[in-house]
# Entry
Amino acid sequence: MASTACLWLPFLPARARSANPASTATASSSPRRPSLKCSAANANANGNSNSVSISPASPRATVADSVEPVDINELRRPPAPVSISTVPAARDPRWLPRPLTSAGMMEEGLKVAYQGFPGAYSEAAAKKAYPNCQTVPCEHFDTAFQAVQNWVADRAVLPLENTLGGSIHRNYDLLLQHRLHIVGEVRLAVRHCLLANPGVKIENLKSAMSHPQALAQCEHTLTELGIEHREAVDDTAVAAKFIAEQILQDTGAIASSLAAELYGLEVLGENIQDDKDNVTRFMMLARESIIPCTDKPFKTSIVFSLEEGPGQLFKALAVFALREINLTKIESRPHKKRPLRVADGCSSPLKHFDYLFYVDLEASTADPKTQNALVNLKEFATFLQVLGSYPTDMSEP
# Structure
């Protein structure tokens, strides 16, 4: 269909009272429409002017009563064609944001938020997920969520679970507090390194500084090296940064090789973790969900709650088992908005926890089997939300 444009005629003042009542009636029957003008907002500090503001136009000049007659036939002519370039950008379909696709996940120039300081393992995961991105360090997990939700960043890469430490429950809770979607996953092998200032030898070290989990994961190795004292800090990269800034000679940091490069430290030992199979699974978050497909392995993450009663969880899991949909993860968390539930049929009612169930499916929401399973689950679940349907990470950690 050919594109059309509508030309709005400017307001014409009514003529003085005349003997032609028809023209007077015609002029009074059209309500006066307020005039708006569109102007670019002030440029930001970088010189960008992306926002547009709408403000009332300036007041019109007063028109005398003796206005020259207007030829009504001139108004009946068809409007002159308007060039497509004059259509406001907000009406151009190309201006609207496009849905994400799995093929467009490697877009360049993205700002990706992560929790921690530069050199943290989360930054390495962000760069693995988006190799050409600009990383945005955030002090807390909820700060990274807010950065994406408030358009400070385009994506966020945050940890969900670790093979040694288990699930990061805080991020599961934040998924329900923010309107973000899981659009991908990335697995990162955690390879702890022992870092120190240039010239420092292992035998000079009396203390090790790092995140509590990193210290615990390297406990036996540190003991064998004769490093008995431990100092816990909020982040592995913080430890490397502190040692470099203070030029400590008797303290080493347990952090990534990336932190060593950033802060000018030497790597005294690589892969010093006690368990070599140390992998963290990160989720990739965006404001818009991606378009799922069925031509590649997909995962779907959901969360739901059920009524109290025997067999309710079995019934919920059966909707997937009967359709041969495999589950890769199931975890329960107390429902913070409804922490307690009163049991019926007791003289003195008992209070039970109300739980949320987080489940990962090896399926795509584009698959009719998955759609039918979710419809079936919704029939008896008290709450159901799809957190995201996204490609499975098939790469080596």
